Amino acid sequence: xxxxxxxxxxxxxxxxxxxxxxxxxxxxxxxxxxxxxxxxxxxxxxxxxxxxxxxxxxxxxxxxxxxxxxxxxxxxxxxxxxxxxxxxxxxxxxxxxxxxxxxxxxxxxxxxxxxxxxxxxxxxxxxxxxxxxxxxxxxxxxxxxxxxxxxxxxxxxxxxxxxxxxxxxxxxxxxxxxxxxxxxxxxxxxxxxxxxxxxxxxxxxxxxxxxxxxxxxxxxxxxxxxxxxxxxxxxxxxxxxxxxxxxxxxxxxxxxxxxxxxxxxxxxxxxxxxxxxxxxxxxxxxxxxxxxxxxxxxxxxxxxxxxxxxxxxxxxxxxxxxxxxxxxxxxxxxxxxxxxxxxxxxxxxxxxxxxxxxxxxxxxxxxxxxxxxxxxxxxxxxxxxxxxxxxxxxxxxxxxxxxxxxxxxxxxxxxxxxxxxxxxxxxxxxxxxxxxxxxxxxxxxxxxxxxxxxxxxxxxxxxxxxxxxxxxxxxxxxxxxxxxxxxxxxxxxxxxxxxxxxxxxxxxxxxxxxxxxxxxxxxxxxxxxxxxxxxxxxxxxxxxxxxxxxxxxxxxxxxxxxxxxxxxxxxxxxxxxxxxxxxxxxxxxxxxxxxxxxxxxxxxxxxxxxxxxxxxxxxxxxxxxxxxxxxxxxxxxxxxxxxxxxxxxxxxxxxxxxxxxxxxxxxxxxxxxxxxxxxxxxxxxxxxxxxxxxxxxxxxxxxxxxxxxxxxxxxxxxxxxxxxxxxxxxxxxxxxxxxxxxxxxxxxxxxxxxxxxxxxxxxxxxxxxxxxxxxxxxxxxxxxxxxxxxxxxxxxxxxxxxxxxxxxxxxxxxxxxxxxxxxxxxxxxxxxxxxxxxxxxxxxxxxxxxxxxxxxxxxxxxxxxxxxxxxxxxxxxxxxxxxxxxxxxxxxxxxxxxxxxxxxxxxxxxxxxxxxxxxxxxxxxx
Length: 926
What we know:
Layout: H1 40-45, E1 49-53, H2 62-72, E2 78-82, E3 88-89, E4 92-95, E5 107-110, H3 114-126, E6 131-134, H4 144-157, E7 160-162, E8 168-171, E9 176-179, E10 187-194, H5 197-210, E11 214-219, H6 228-236, E12 243-247, H7 254-265, E13 270-273, H8 295-304, E14 309-311, H9 314-325, E15 334-339, H10 342-355, E16 358-359, H11 364-369, E17 384-385, H12 392-404, E18 410-415, H13 423-435, E19 441-445, H14 452-460, E20 465-466, H15 469-489, H16 504-516, H17 524-533, E21 542-544, H18 547-557, E22 561-566, E23 579-583, H19 586-603, E24 611-616, E25 624-633, E26 637-644, H20 649-652, E27 655-658, H21 664-672, H22 677-680, H23 691-707, E28 711-722, E29 725-728, E30 731-735, E31 758-761, E32 767-772, H24 778-786, H25 790-797, H26 806-813, E33 820-827, E34 835-844, E35 850-857, H27 866-880, E36 885-891, H28 895-903, E37 907-910, E38 917-923
Parallel strand pairs: 1-2, 1-5, 2-4, 5-6, 6-7, 10-11, 10-12, 12-13, 13-14, 15-16, 15-17, 15-18, 18-19, 19-20, 35-36
Antiparallel strand pairs: 3-4, 8-9, 8-11, 21-24, 22-23, 22-24, 25-26, 25-28, 26-27, 28-29, 28-30, 31-32, 32-33, 33-34, 34-35, 36-38, 37-38
């Protein structure tokens, strides 16, 4: 009988039961069954007993408000009031401390003065309280020592900490309102996570007026212990949550945030709102690319890679949540607008153009069929303006015709109350038609009382509807962005291309030699050497120490030539007049030499002159000047930017950015969003540039970002592109000593670990490919599970399951390589398609020190050493990622798995929770 993957990791898969044991014949190695501990936020949001430290009767006090909120919300658990000064609080018995209270406590809510919080946490630790929510405020920078004392006390006592200065926790379904919010919060399917307590209060007040409920409200406060990543991972598996709203102000742990977002966005829409969009980034060195890329550009690029979508306003945030929580999805950003009035339709069209939504032209035959109902004075192709007298059948016909076109991805129908138009009947007809369509249909009913029933028609049908043209267009824009970002989420490129290998070691030697000399910039020759190591075409270059050497270089290259000051002390040669173009003779060369030396002495007298470079003047009749850059963001690490180049680049500010690693899909998305993109195609008498060559250069720069963390800033400008290829004409590189850590720790997104790809020869001589799983392996994983016997699948999933659901499949194949790993074994027969025969996976615990594992080998491939090899590979990777311990649980009757664990030096213990289970674990470090 085949074995199946264990029920691991359950805490991330809402489709799996909370606990289950996999059984298999003991004549074969069976999968490990793992029963993970209850999640930290399970304890926080569904506690059996809550103790409020600082509970009070004093009107207006935080202790009075929080204790009242818990009682008013209908909290069904045991509620303890802790206050040494009172015997009763709000009619309830008060306890002086936990020493005098009976029973265990799951959650401590602390509203006592900040000076007492550390003592409270020590008391919680003595009584085994697992989690504390600290609402106590007045922990300003001037009281930093108090805050540090609180954090130290929590860590020493092993108490998980939310806060200090948190707004609170709200779980309406559990009757938990451990917050200072004064208004009741309705139950719903939205989860709200906010860094700001003030914004939490405002959003909850706004939501109450709109009738919006929440599954959870979580405010992190000062985030001393809990972080966004952990919250988002919990919500990704929370059955009560269908979509997540995240309000961010500051990002400190980029990788943890992006990991959490990627996990959550695989199964639930995540909408993010972040203010401060106009702050400029601080780069580590001067650059023509850096100052023109804002910190918000970088945040936007990071968010795109998580599968989440961004909202700019609060209205957009809730509109996106409502829209994305439904089943409507857009295949692209091409929109049709259908209206019975010109003015609102044109307002919608204007907003669409602002946002880059494509208003495609409808086919002539479509317009011909609808000629009778179209309004002559405003008969634009798209928006499609119907007559004020258009009725339900006219709207239905127009909607059907527009959505039937392959160039249309979605439609907005909007109507205003004019004439005898029956808007309710129109809405009903459009809703009926929309429910039969695979493409999204959004409604916009302008007015108030006269369109209330029309809005109700769409609401009852579960269709999105909006009050203004702009809101409807913005909602579709977010829907299209969500789908685009979901596709970007699936991109897991490796650090290196599969083309000619880069000479990484040689480039690293150049950089380290410059750092050893105490320099923070490479000179012109070194910059060229680094680019050549990564196979980026550059113009030939020579450096002259005197005029004689310069003349010799001019003769070797042939006139015309370009001369530039070469000084690592000068960040921008052009800024001090340090460049001379089009030098056609030795006389001009001598004059240029003198001018360059004088310019350096005048503008940068302290700068050291390493020499003057000479290079041939590159000419291209059809060339376009581009810029490719690499800059170091203080939060998200290396960022690749692309756009128009040349001297006008600082004025045009035409830039797009993306977080490495890149691949062709991401690069195509970058290029298409620049204003220069149309100029790279064929236009007028100019042929299209070699876009494959451009893609290769961007891939190579992505490689540099991955493999050379010492590069803090790179600027290739101009990069001349034409139909023959590309060549880098000028380049600058700034460097700094890299922060120590594991490979790729400097990147916000971990590349596909291509270095883990290898082969394994079985005992019978057959060879298997061993490699980390990828999102595109979904079909292999599905077939692997589908081909298991019915009994194996039942023991694996504790239900009669033929195949994995889409959510389960995504969870198994779309992993974050920074904190988890799944190594699959692939058999590639000489004839036929490859197929999966085994998998080993682990996921790091939140502490990062230990990990759970699972192992599966198909029955026909057992007994050949594959399970032993996969486990050895998995443990090596876990050790390299910083894990100190690996563990799992095995059925007591599964002797062959236990034998394997013994051979791998695992300690085996009886499980205290289940006599049928054995706990297996071993240290990964000496």
